[in-house]
């Protein structure tokens, strides 16, 4: 089993853990990539997927039109990137009592594939309040589906697709064997875009560029946010899924792919040749600002995305700014759609006291598992975090962790509100299903998904106000 990327139908992709009815996968981070270097523990029977410490999520950041400060140079991704893992398993019977426990599906048969997918949802699916799922309705659906024989494998796959679509959860979906196998071949050789299926007036959908990696290959070549993708290497991709198109865009590092795009709804068509790239770009820029007629130094740090270099570069920037005399810091997370959630968790820890909660994960059983800081903070100076409506996923984890632990004030706009976790399960015929199994919850127990985080100030406050706000916050927290 290998962990692979998916293109979510949301601006920020979500946590993916790959598993199957025989293997327990290891949670890893992804950003349109696949990391094949992890182990699987073999089991003899299906086990229930439960929320442990989910550690990964992926997203692509939008462009920022800001004055570019100093860039941190780096030659390769950080070698000490965290990859903590927890087992995800399934238990026979799901939510049913022993007297209603389901018999194991006949593995490999058409009916068995459908029942296998049904059981995964029955055991693992988290209803986020936007679907029509209930244990009772799901049992009735199985009875209806399996009341007649399923003569072909394609019919079985079609039934699974419709069954998952009935949940009305945009992230829970079916993967054909071809799609699932493609996932295992992914690596970080994409062109730096996030593709989304957007409905149009005809009832169909268009493939739009929803996000761009700042200074990534696609943006550099001239692809813009909002562009419609029409063809890849001369092949018409209209009507194809975002997953299919993302697969076609990826390939060996340094090779080229030609993408035909339409700029905006009414703009011109353009054929763009883009070179794929492997090495993650430095995501951090920083500079020292002088205020109060030069009497006070403020360290400004802009984080574009949470990639493999993010934590290492943040540490370097903060230390250099401290050495230059910075007595307070601005962390700019505007238009940062996230990236590797584990990087976000580790960066948040840099600002927190030992024992402070970074984030919780919550599953269908309502239990919550906490990520906590294990050591003293890198800096103790007051921090101002800049956020806007495009601050999402890993960015929201960092913003809420610093805010709820009285380490920073949030300034700007309400954040995007993205915090769901998906698991990818491999079925016994090589196909797969992606199922929403959990969500992220802030230290103050706020459900991020669909809600976002409200800032403390809409406009830049004076540093005296920041210090007073944090002082009051700490007094209230301490009792």
Automatic annotation (TrEMBL):
PDZ domain span: 180-250
GO molecular function: endopeptidase activity; serine-type endopeptidase activity
Record CDD domains: cpPDZ_CPP-like (cd06782), Peptidase_S41_CPP (cd07560)
GO biological process, one term: proteolysis
Pfam families: PDZ_6 (PF17820), Peptidase_S41 (PF03572)
Domain of life: Eukaryota
Keyword Hydrolase in record: yes
PROSITE patterns: PDZ
One annotated Gene Ontology cellular component of this protein: chloroplast thylakoid lumen
Record InterPro entries: ClpP/crotonase-like_dom_sf, PDZ, PDZ_6, PDZ_sf, Peptidase_S41A, Tail-specific_protease
Gene3D superfamilies per UniProt: 2-enoyl-CoA Hydratase, Chain A, domain 1, 2.30.42.10, 3.30.750.44
Keywords in alphabetical order: Hydrolase, Protease, Serine protease
Family named by the database record: Belongs to the peptidase S41A family.
Record protein name field: Carboxyl-terminal-processing peptidase 1, chloroplastic
Organism lineage: Eukaryota, Viridiplantae, Streptophyta, Embryophyta, Tracheophyta
Gene: LOC110791122
């Amino acid at each position: 089993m290998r962990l692979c990327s998916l293109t979510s139908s949301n601006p920020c992709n979500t946590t993916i853990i790959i598993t199957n009815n025989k293997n327990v996968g290891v949670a890893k981070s992804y950003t349109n990539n696949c990391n094949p270097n992890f182990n699987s523990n073999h089991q003899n029977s299906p086990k229930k997927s439960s929320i442990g410490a989910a550690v990964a999520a992926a997203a692509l950041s939008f462009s920022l039109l800001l004055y570019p400060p100093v860039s941190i140079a780096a030659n390769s991704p950080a070698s000490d990137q965290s990859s903590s893992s927890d087992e995800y398993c399934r238990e026979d019977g799901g939510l049913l009592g022993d007297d209603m426990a389901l018999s194991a599906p006949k593995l490999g048969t058409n009916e068995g594939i459908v029942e296998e997918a049904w059981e995964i949802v029955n055991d693992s699916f988290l209803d986020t309040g936007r679907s029509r799922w209930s244990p009772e309705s799901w049992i009735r659906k199985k009875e209806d589906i399996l009341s007649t024989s399923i003569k072909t494998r394609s019919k079985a796959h079609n039934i699974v697709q419709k069954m998952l679509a009935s949940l009305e959860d945009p992230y829970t979906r079916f993967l054909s064997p071809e799609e699932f196998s493609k996932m295992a071949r992914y690596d970080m050789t994409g062109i730096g875009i996030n593709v989304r299926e957007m409905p149009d007036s005809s009832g169909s959908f268009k493939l739009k560029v929803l996000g761009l990696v700042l200074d990534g290959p696609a943006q550099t070549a001239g692809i813009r946010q909002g562009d419609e993708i029409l063809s890849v290497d001369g092949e018409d991709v209209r009507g194809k899924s975002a997953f299919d198109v993302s697969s076609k865009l990826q390939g060996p590092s340094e090779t080229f792919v030609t993408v035909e795009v339409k700029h905006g709804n009414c703009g011109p068509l353009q054929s763009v040749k883009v070179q794929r790239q492997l090495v993650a770009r430095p995501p951090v820029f920083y500079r020292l600002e002088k205020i109060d007629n030069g009497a006070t130094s403020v360290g400004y740090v802009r984080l574009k995305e949470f990639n493999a270099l993010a934590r290492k570069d943040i540490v370097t920037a903060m230390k250099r700014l401290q050495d230059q005399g910075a007595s307070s810091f601005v962390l700019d997370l505007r238009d940062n759609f996230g990236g590797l959630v584990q990087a976000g968790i580790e960066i948040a820890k840099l600002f927190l006291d030992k024992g402070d909660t970074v984030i919780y994960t919550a599953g269908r059983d309502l239990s919550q598992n906490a990520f906590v800081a294990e050591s003293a903070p890198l800096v103790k100076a007051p921090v101002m975090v800049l956020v806007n409506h495009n601050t999402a996923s890993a960015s929201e984890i960092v913003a809420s962790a610093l805010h709820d632990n009285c380490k920073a004030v949030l300034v700007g706009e309400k954040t995007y509100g993205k915090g769901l976790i998906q698991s990818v399960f491999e079925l016994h015929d090589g196909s797969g299903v992606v199922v929403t199994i959990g969500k992220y919850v802030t230290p103050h127990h706020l459900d991020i998904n669909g809600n976002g985080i409200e800032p403390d100030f809409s406009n830049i406050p004076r540093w005296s106000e920041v210090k007073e706000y944090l002082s009051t916050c700490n007094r209230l927290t301490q009792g």
